[in-house]
Amino acid sequence: MIRASDRDQAITLIGEAVVAGAREALACKELGLTQRTLQRWRKQGGVEDRRPNAMRPAPANKLSEAEEQQVLEVLQQPHNRSLPPSQIVPALADEGIYIASESSFFRVMHKHNQQHHRGRSKERTTRPHTSHAATGPNEVWMWVITWLPGPVKGLFLYLYLILDLYSHKIVGWEIWEEESAEHASQLIRRTVIREQCVIRQHPLVLHSDNESPMKESTLLETLYSLGITPSRSRPRVSNDNPYAESIFRTCKYRPNYPTKGFIDLTEARVWVQQFSSWYKRRCPFFIYLFDERSNISAFVALNRQHRFCNTQVILYSLLLPPIN
Protein backbone atom coordinates (compact mmCIF):
# COMPACT_ATOMS: atom_id res chain seq x y z
CA MET A 1 0.00 0.00 0.00
CA ILE A 2 1.33 3.43 -0.96
CA ARG A 3 0.70 6.21 1.55
CA ALA A 4 -0.85 9.52 0.51
CA SER A 5 2.34 11.40 1.41
CA ASP A 6 4.37 9.15 -0.89
CA ARG A 7 1.86 9.70 -3.68
CA ASP A 8 2.09 13.47 -3.29
CA GLN A 9 5.90 13.29 -3.34
CA ALA A 10 5.85 11.17 -6.51
CA ILE A 11 3.46 13.59 -8.23
CA THR A 12 5.71 16.51 -7.26
CA LEU A 13 8.90 14.82 -8.49
CA ILE A 14 7.35 13.85 -11.82
CA GLY A 15 5.98 17.36 -12.25
CA GLU A 16 9.43 18.87 -11.63
CA ALA A 17 10.97 16.47 -14.14
CA VAL A 18 8.40 17.38 -16.80
CA VAL A 19 8.99 21.11 -16.22
CA ALA A 20 12.72 20.47 -16.65
CA GLY A 21 12.06 18.94 -20.07
CA ALA A 22 11.65 15.23 -19.35
CA ARG A 23 8.88 13.11 -20.83
CA GLU A 24 6.18 12.14 -18.38
CA ALA A 25 6.20 8.48 -19.44
CA LEU A 26 9.95 8.16 -18.84
CA ALA A 27 9.68 9.97 -15.51
CA CYS A 28 6.97 7.55 -14.40
CA LYS A 29 9.10 4.60 -15.52
CA GLU A 30 11.99 5.78 -13.33
CA LEU A 31 9.69 5.62 -10.29
CA GLY A 32 8.20 2.28 -11.30
CA LEU A 33 4.79 3.76 -12.12
CA THR A 34 2.53 3.95 -15.14
CA GLN A 35 0.96 7.09 -16.55
CA ARG A 36 -2.47 5.65 -15.80
CA THR A 37 -1.57 5.34 -12.11
CA LEU A 38 -0.29 8.92 -12.07
CA GLN A 39 -3.49 10.16 -13.67
CA ARG A 40 -5.61 8.32 -11.09
CA TRP A 41 -3.59 9.77 -8.21
CA ARG A 42 -4.01 13.28 -9.56
CA LYS A 43 -7.74 12.77 -9.94
CA GLN A 44 -8.18 11.36 -6.42
CA GLY A 45 -6.08 14.09 -4.83
CA GLY A 46 -4.99 13.30 -1.25
CA VAL A 47 -7.46 10.49 -0.65
CA GLU A 48 -5.96 7.70 1.43
CA ASP A 49 -6.08 4.11 0.26
CA ARG A 50 -9.21 2.68 1.84
CA ARG A 51 -8.36 -0.98 1.24
CA PRO A 52 -6.52 -1.63 4.54
CA ASN A 53 -9.52 -0.45 6.59
CA ALA A 54 -12.21 -1.88 4.34
CA MET A 55 -14.97 -3.94 5.92
CA ARG A 56 -14.62 -7.52 4.84
CA PRO A 57 -17.49 -9.80 5.83
CA ALA A 58 -16.51 -13.24 7.09
CA PRO A 59 -17.25 -16.14 4.71
CA ALA A 60 -20.44 -18.02 5.45
CA ASN A 61 -18.55 -21.33 5.60
CA LYS A 62 -15.83 -20.09 8.00
CA LEU A 63 -14.90 -22.54 10.74
CA SER A 64 -16.27 -21.67 14.14
CA GLU A 65 -14.05 -21.47 17.22
CA ALA A 66 -15.29 -24.87 18.34
CA GLU A 67 -14.42 -26.40 14.97
CA GLU A 68 -10.96 -24.80 15.03
CA GLN A 69 -10.40 -26.24 18.49
CA GLN A 70 -11.46 -29.65 17.22
CA VAL A 71 -8.96 -29.37 14.36
CA LEU A 72 -6.20 -28.51 16.85
CA GLU A 73 -7.12 -31.48 19.04
CA VAL A 74 -6.91 -33.80 16.03
CA LEU A 75 -3.53 -32.35 15.06
CA GLN A 76 -2.17 -32.85 18.58
CA GLN A 77 -3.16 -36.50 18.84
CA PRO A 78 -0.05 -38.71 19.21
CA HIS A 79 -0.60 -40.62 15.98
CA ASN A 80 -1.12 -37.39 13.99
CA ARG A 81 1.74 -35.27 15.27
CA SER A 82 4.12 -36.36 12.54
CA LEU A 83 1.54 -36.36 9.73
CA PRO A 84 0.58 -33.52 7.37
CA PRO A 85 -3.08 -32.63 6.69
CA SER A 86 -2.84 -34.41 3.34
CA GLN A 87 -2.63 -37.69 5.32
CA ILE A 88 -4.76 -36.74 8.34
CA VAL A 89 -7.88 -35.79 6.37
CA PRO A 90 -7.98 -39.05 4.30
CA ALA A 91 -7.40 -41.08 7.47
CA LEU A 92 -10.37 -39.36 9.13
CA ALA A 93 -12.45 -39.96 6.01
CA ASP A 94 -11.69 -43.69 6.24
CA GLU A 95 -13.20 -43.57 9.74
CA GLY A 96 -16.26 -41.70 8.46
CA ILE A 97 -15.24 -38.42 10.11
CA TYR A 98 -15.13 -35.07 8.32
CA ILE A 99 -14.11 -31.92 10.18
CA ALA A 100 -12.60 -29.63 7.55
CA SER A 101 -10.74 -29.71 4.26
CA GLU A 102 -6.98 -29.98 3.93
CA SER A 103 -6.66 -26.27 3.14
CA SER A 104 -8.70 -25.43 6.27
CA PHE A 105 -6.38 -27.63 8.32
CA PHE A 106 -3.40 -25.73 6.92
CA ARG A 107 -5.03 -22.36 7.66
CA VAL A 108 -5.72 -23.36 11.27
CA MET A 109 -2.17 -24.67 11.67
CA HIS A 110 -0.74 -21.42 10.32
CA LYS A 111 -3.03 -19.32 12.52
CA HIS A 112 -1.93 -21.12 15.69
CA ASN A 113 1.73 -21.55 14.64
CA GLN A 114 1.40 -25.32 14.27
CA GLN A 115 2.86 -25.59 10.76
CA HIS A 116 6.34 -26.36 12.10
CA HIS A 117 7.82 -29.61 13.43
CA ARG A 118 5.20 -31.31 15.63
CA GLY A 119 6.35 -34.90 16.00
CA ARG A 120 8.41 -36.61 18.69
CA SER A 121 11.31 -37.21 16.34
CA LYS A 122 14.25 -34.85 16.46
CA GLU A 123 13.76 -31.74 14.42
CA ARG A 124 15.90 -31.49 11.32
CA THR A 125 18.87 -29.21 11.78
CA THR A 126 20.50 -27.30 8.97
CA ARG A 127 24.14 -26.34 9.12
CA PRO A 128 25.96 -23.90 6.88
CA HIS A 129 28.24 -25.47 4.31
CA THR A 130 31.85 -25.56 5.41
CA SER A 131 34.19 -23.59 3.19
CA HIS A 132 37.89 -22.81 3.34
CA ALA A 133 39.83 -19.96 1.76
CA ALA A 134 43.59 -19.69 1.36
CA THR A 135 45.35 -16.33 1.56
CA GLY A 136 48.81 -17.82 1.17
CA PRO A 137 50.72 -21.04 0.49
CA ASN A 138 50.42 -24.05 2.81
CA GLU A 139 47.09 -23.03 4.32
CA VAL A 140 44.78 -25.39 2.41
CA TRP A 141 45.94 -28.60 0.74
CA MET A 142 43.86 -30.90 -1.41
CA TRP A 143 44.65 -34.53 -1.98
CA VAL A 144 43.08 -37.18 -4.12
CA ILE A 145 43.86 -40.58 -5.60
CA THR A 146 43.67 -41.36 -9.31
CA TRP A 147 44.13 -44.59 -11.22
CA LEU A 148 46.97 -45.05 -13.67
CA PRO A 149 46.86 -47.88 -16.24
CA GLY A 150 49.05 -50.85 -15.36
CA PRO A 151 50.84 -53.41 -17.53
CA VAL A 152 47.71 -55.57 -17.85
CA LYS A 153 44.20 -54.46 -18.70
CA GLY A 154 42.23 -54.22 -15.47
CA LEU A 155 45.35 -53.75 -13.33
CA PHE A 156 45.93 -50.22 -12.04
CA LEU A 157 48.48 -48.21 -10.14
CA TYR A 158 47.33 -45.50 -7.74
CA LEU A 159 48.72 -41.98 -7.80
CA TYR A 160 48.40 -40.12 -4.50
CA LEU A 161 48.77 -36.38 -5.07
CA ILE A 162 48.63 -33.36 -2.74
CA LEU A 163 48.04 -29.91 -4.24
CA ASP A 164 48.28 -26.51 -2.58
CA LEU A 165 45.07 -24.52 -3.08
CA TYR A 166 46.63 -21.06 -3.16
CA SER A 167 49.53 -21.68 -5.52
CA HIS A 168 48.46 -24.94 -7.25
CA LYS A 169 51.88 -26.30 -6.38
CA ILE A 170 52.29 -30.07 -6.26
CA VAL A 171 53.52 -30.33 -2.69
CA GLY A 172 53.65 -34.11 -2.61
CA TRP A 173 52.92 -37.25 -4.60
CA GLU A 174 53.58 -40.98 -4.56
CA ILE A 175 52.47 -44.07 -6.46
CA TRP A 176 51.51 -47.37 -4.89
CA GLU A 177 49.89 -50.56 -6.07
CA GLU A 178 46.88 -50.27 -3.77
CA GLU A 179 44.70 -47.71 -2.03
CA SER A 180 45.55 -47.54 1.64
CA ALA A 181 45.25 -45.06 4.49
CA GLU A 182 48.71 -46.14 5.68
CA HIS A 183 50.26 -45.02 2.38
CA ALA A 184 48.38 -41.73 2.58
CA SER A 185 49.64 -41.17 6.12
CA GLN A 186 53.24 -41.73 5.02
CA LEU A 187 52.87 -39.27 2.15
CA ILE A 188 51.30 -36.59 4.33
CA ARG A 189 54.02 -36.91 6.98
CA ARG A 190 56.79 -36.59 4.38
CA THR A 191 55.06 -33.65 2.73
CA VAL A 192 54.63 -31.76 6.00
CA ILE A 193 58.34 -32.19 6.78
CA ARG A 194 59.48 -31.28 3.25
CA GLU A 195 57.30 -28.15 3.13
CA GLN A 196 58.44 -27.18 6.64
CA CYS A 197 54.89 -27.10 7.97
CA VAL A 198 55.58 -28.79 11.29
CA ILE A 199 55.65 -25.38 12.96
CA ARG A 200 53.35 -22.94 11.19
CA GLN A 201 51.60 -19.67 11.86
CA HIS A 202 48.31 -20.58 10.16
CA PRO A 203 46.25 -23.77 10.61
CA LEU A 204 46.56 -26.27 7.78
CA VAL A 205 43.44 -27.79 6.23
CA LEU A 206 43.58 -30.98 4.16
CA HIS A 207 40.59 -31.27 1.83
CA SER A 208 39.50 -34.48 0.10
CA ASP A 209 36.40 -36.28 -1.08
CA ASN A 210 34.62 -39.00 0.88
CA GLU A 211 36.36 -42.08 -0.48
CA SER A 212 37.18 -44.80 2.02
CA PRO A 213 40.96 -44.17 2.33
CA MET A 214 40.23 -40.54 3.23
CA LYS A 215 38.00 -41.55 6.15
CA GLU A 216 39.96 -44.36 7.78
CA SER A 217 40.99 -43.94 11.39
CA THR A 218 44.68 -44.41 10.56
CA LEU A 219 44.72 -41.31 8.39
CA LEU A 220 42.59 -39.28 10.78
CA GLU A 221 44.92 -40.13 13.65
CA THR A 222 47.87 -38.95 11.56
CA LEU A 223 46.15 -35.67 10.72
CA TYR A 224 45.26 -34.99 14.34
CA SER A 225 48.80 -35.75 15.50
CA LEU A 226 50.16 -33.27 12.94
CA GLY A 227 47.61 -30.61 13.82
CA ILE A 228 45.93 -30.76 10.40
CA THR A 229 42.20 -30.14 10.06
CA PRO A 230 40.48 -32.70 7.80
CA SER A 231 37.86 -31.48 5.35
CA ARG A 232 35.72 -33.74 3.19
CA SER A 233 32.97 -33.24 0.67
CA ARG A 234 31.37 -35.31 -2.04
CA PRO A 235 29.13 -33.13 -4.23
CA ARG A 236 26.86 -34.94 -6.68
CA VAL A 237 29.09 -34.08 -9.62
CA SER A 238 31.90 -35.97 -11.30
CA ASN A 239 34.35 -33.14 -10.65
CA ASP A 240 33.96 -33.35 -6.89
CA ASN A 241 37.47 -32.04 -6.12
CA PRO A 242 37.88 -29.59 -9.02
CA TYR A 243 41.38 -28.24 -8.41
CA ALA A 244 42.92 -31.66 -7.92
CA GLU A 245 40.88 -33.21 -10.74
CA SER A 246 42.00 -30.46 -13.13
CA ILE A 247 45.67 -31.34 -12.65
CA PHE A 248 44.86 -34.99 -13.39
CA ARG A 249 43.26 -33.85 -16.62
CA THR A 250 46.46 -31.97 -17.46
CA CYS A 251 48.50 -35.02 -16.52
CA LYS A 252 46.58 -37.60 -18.52
CA TYR A 253 46.32 -35.43 -21.65
CA ARG A 254 50.06 -34.96 -22.02
CA PRO A 255 51.29 -36.17 -25.46
CA ASN A 256 53.70 -38.66 -23.90
CA TYR A 257 51.17 -40.14 -21.48
CA PRO A 258 51.33 -43.96 -21.83
CA THR A 259 47.71 -44.72 -22.61
CA LYS A 260 48.53 -48.41 -23.01
CA GLY A 261 49.77 -48.60 -19.45
CA PHE A 262 52.96 -48.46 -17.42
CA ILE A 263 55.24 -51.48 -17.41
CA ASP A 264 55.84 -51.37 -13.67
CA LEU A 265 55.79 -49.11 -10.63
CA THR A 266 59.25 -47.69 -11.34
CA GLU A 267 58.31 -46.50 -14.82
CA ALA A 268 55.17 -44.85 -13.47
CA ARG A 269 57.14 -43.00 -10.79
CA VAL A 270 59.72 -41.80 -13.31
CA TRP A 271 57.01 -40.51 -15.64
CA VAL A 272 55.13 -38.67 -12.87
CA GLN A 273 58.42 -37.15 -11.70
CA GLN A 274 59.00 -35.82 -15.22
CA PHE A 275 55.46 -34.48 -15.35
CA SER A 276 55.90 -32.76 -12.00
CA SER A 277 59.08 -31.08 -13.22
CA TRP A 278 57.34 -29.97 -16.44
CA TYR A 279 54.41 -28.65 -14.43
CA LYS A 280 56.66 -26.54 -12.24
CA ARG A 281 58.58 -25.23 -15.23
CA ARG A 282 55.79 -24.54 -17.70
CA CYS A 283 52.54 -23.73 -15.90
CA PRO A 284 52.19 -19.92 -15.61
CA PHE A 285 50.21 -19.87 -12.37
CA PHE A 286 53.06 -21.74 -10.68
CA ILE A 287 55.88 -19.41 -11.65
CA TYR A 288 56.39 -17.61 -8.38
CA LEU A 289 57.18 -20.85 -6.55
CA PHE A 290 60.61 -21.37 -8.09
CA ASP A 291 62.04 -20.20 -4.80
CA GLU A 292 59.56 -19.29 -2.11
CA ARG A 293 62.18 -17.59 0.06
CA SER A 294 63.82 -15.36 -2.57
CA ASN A 295 63.03 -11.83 -3.63
CA ILE A 296 62.00 -13.11 -7.05
CA SER A 297 59.38 -15.30 -5.45
CA ALA A 298 57.98 -12.44 -3.38
CA PHE A 299 57.91 -10.01 -6.31
CA VAL A 300 56.11 -12.37 -8.65
CA ALA A 301 53.72 -13.43 -5.88
CA LEU A 302 52.62 -9.81 -5.49
CA ASN A 303 51.84 -9.75 -9.20
CA ARG A 304 49.92 -13.02 -9.09
CA GLN A 305 46.67 -11.28 -10.05
CA HIS A 306 48.15 -10.21 -13.39
CA ARG A 307 47.45 -12.14 -16.55
CA PHE A 308 49.59 -15.23 -17.01
CA CYS A 309 51.52 -13.77 -19.92
CA ASN A 310 52.44 -10.67 -17.91
CA THR A 311 53.57 -12.85 -15.00
CA GLN A 312 55.83 -14.80 -17.34
CA VAL A 313 57.38 -11.59 -18.66
CA ILE A 314 58.05 -10.42 -15.11
CA LEU A 315 59.73 -13.69 -14.21
CA TYR A 316 61.86 -13.89 -17.34
CA SER A 317 62.99 -10.29 -16.94
CA LEU A 318 64.13 -11.09 -13.41
CA LEU A 319 65.92 -14.30 -14.34
CA LEU A 320 67.73 -13.07 -17.47
CA PRO A 321 71.27 -11.79 -16.88
CA PRO A 322 71.89 -8.07 -17.44
CA ILE A 323 72.88 -6.98 -20.96
CA ASN A 324 76.38 -5.54 -21.15
Describe the structure.
With 324 residues, this protein is α/β, with parallel strands linked by helices. The protein has 4 domains: 4-44; 65-111, no CATH class; 140-281, Nucleotidyltransferase, domain 5; 283-324, no CATH class. The protein is built from 13 helices and 5 strands. A 5-stranded mixed beta sheet has the order 3-2-1-4-5, sandwiched between helices.
Provide the gyration radius in Å: 34 Å
H/E element string? HHHHHHEEEHEHHEHHHH
- Fraction of residues in helix: 40-55%
The low-pLDDT segments are: 284-324
Proportion of β residues?
5-15%
- What class do helices, strands and sheet pairing give? alpha/beta
Spatial arrangement of strands, main beta sheet: 3-2-1-4-5
Mean pLDDT over the full residue set = 81
**Total helical elements:** 13
- Report the end-to-end length measured between terminal Cα atoms: 79 Å
* Beta-strand segment tally: 5
- Number of self-contained structural domains: 4
Summarize the structure.
The chain has 324 residues and is an alpha/beta fold. It contains 13 helices and 5 strands.
Which features would summarize this protein structure in a list?
5-stranded mixed beta sheet; alpha/beta; 5 strands
